[in-house]
Amino acid sequence: MMAGLLKSREAILAAALIALVLLVESRFSGFAAPGNLASVFNDTAILMILALGQMLVILTRCIDLSLASNLALTGMATAMVNAAMPGIPVPLLIAMAIGMGLVMGAFNGILVWKLDIPPIVVTLGTLTIYRGLIFILSGGQWINSHEMSAAYKGLPRFEILGLPVMAWVAVAIILGFIVLVTRTSLGRAFYAVGGNPHAAVYTGIDVGRTRFTAFTIAGGLAGLCGYLWVARYAVAYTDVAEGFELDVVAACVIGGISIAGGIGTVGGAVLGALFLGTIKNALPVAGISPFWQMAISGAAIIIAVAFNARGERTKGRVILKSAEHAS
Amino acid sequence: MKLFTKLAAGLTLAGALMGGTAAIAQDNVRIALVAKSLGNGFFEAAARGAEEAAEELGNAEIIYTGPTSTTAEGQIEVINSLIAQQVDAIAISANDPDAVVPALQRAMQRGITVISWDSGVAPEGREMHLAPSSNELIGQTIIKLAADHMPEGGQVAVLSATSTSTNQNAWIEEMNAVMDQYPDIEVVATVYGDDLADKSYREAQGLMQSYPDLDAIIAPTSVGIVAAAQAVQDAGKVGEVNVTGLGLPSEMAGAIESGASESFAIWNPVDLGYATAMLAYNLATDEATAEPGAEIGMGRMGTATLDDDNTAAMSEPFTYDASNIDEYKDIF
């Protein structure tokens, strides 16, 4: 019953996505061509990865607003290291990016876990702190494309089987998340903690630790995205991805992940991100006045959420039962 | 009670942070240089120019500040804190020509000299405005940059910042005004990248998809031109689509190297910051008065002549290409 409902919601979203693509195709022929769809997927890779990280956090009834700042700080740090020491191999830089992201995510997590500060307050604070650290680190300077090594910029663009590495990274992370969320006890713990934290305690789940883990994973993914973003756009500056945290939350919400916690699927987060990514890519080619673009993006979010809200009302929070049985 | 102590401590700390500079050197003429946002290479370079002017003047002090994002709200907060610090002059590059006017009028009532530079403020909100160049000259330059590399004519598109940017809109208007000199060139679209790297990149991609025969993208904004050059490079259209407009040599060096951009232009921001500081100093020390027709000294940059709107232009934009990029890319 549960699985059926969730599946149908994703089916609705997938249908909406296909309808959107066809609608754009009718205004701008060539949009639905496989090559272009692949480039839309590639363009949305970062949003998908971050939406998955954010999903874990939201599942546990928390929210992480610092993801975009985390991304910008790690991106700037890797670009600066690359510019200063071009000899350092790129895999090492990526490891550094993930490591930095993990630390920043864990910092959020520890404040939420040990000091019991509301997550929105913690991450609103770290959003500003991490963004501010970029100023301190870079002194306001840009790192430009001619200062970055060819290998640094080239990796996300390198094509394997017709898709750039960046898209493959997203695919790998999506698959990893499916396993994590549906096949591991940690994955079920995220749902249990968000579904009913008090009941989760009685099943032997450490609520704080589970939240900490969610923040840490999300942070690590943001760190990885920091490298991907800066390498893709070949420029690092303080305003990188400013405001992107809200796109990530919007993608989750469109994907049917309940802000109240405990409800959401990997497929939903991915489809939500793709929906938003498709709109972003479609607006420039659809010949719509730029003055309308923001209103259209916003309307799409509200319509999607209205659909989801209706879905949730009928369903209630049955997810706790299945979570209890599983753990 | 405990809450009160905490609040008091917080306020003292905030006060100490804001008033930190106030304690030092009261005798100096304190000139606040307000940027559109901090962390933008252009404004950092202008701040260096202003510092240079301060050193030359001897008894001037530059307070370089601005909001962390390009919003008028952020600038209003900055202006209010500068009023509280009782600076002698405020020189602002406005994010919105009208929104900052009330705050700036308050500053003028307190006896603070207010001028705008780079991106202007409505005349009632400032004593004078120093445009980096005249809008006419910039408008003519950006289309000429594109036209120089398309002898047979063709299609060009404009990638601007936000749809409300004061100076971008003025330049595009001036550009369109001289289009009759280029009968073979058609401006097919004007799109807005909002000065965000990812949105500008996507808009540039969209332009290339919508207009497969596009010959040039004119981006009169430093974020947009870099993003467009990267998009052209990634689309494998180097040599087909020439990206030009206004950008900084350090940020565009890679695009010139890859061939995505043949040439671009910019006035020298160091000179602009220098000239702004000189003007602010001369007005704040009452050595000159801002009135139509007045000629005010700008140190090594000559003199600024004010027009009926109390606006002056500094100089023409300068063109950068493969022949001189290496010389300038490490400067700004």
Automatic annotation (TrEMBL), chain B:
It comes from the Bacteria. Residues 31-286 form the Periplasmic binding protein domain. It comes from Histidinibacterium aquaticum. GO terms for biological process: rhamnose transmembrane transport. Residues 1-25 form the signal peptide. Gene3D superfamilies: 3.40.50.2300. This is Rhamnose ABC transporter substrate-binding protein. It is found in: Periplasm. Coiled coil: none annotated. Keywords: Signal. Pfam families: Peripla_BP_4. The keyword Signal applies. GO terms for molecular function: carbohydrate binding. InterPro entries: Bact_Solute-Bind_Prot2, Peripla_BP_I, RhaS, SBP_2_dom. GO terms for cellular component: outer membrane-bounded periplasmic space. Its main location: periplasm. Belongs to the bacterial solute-binding protein 2 family.
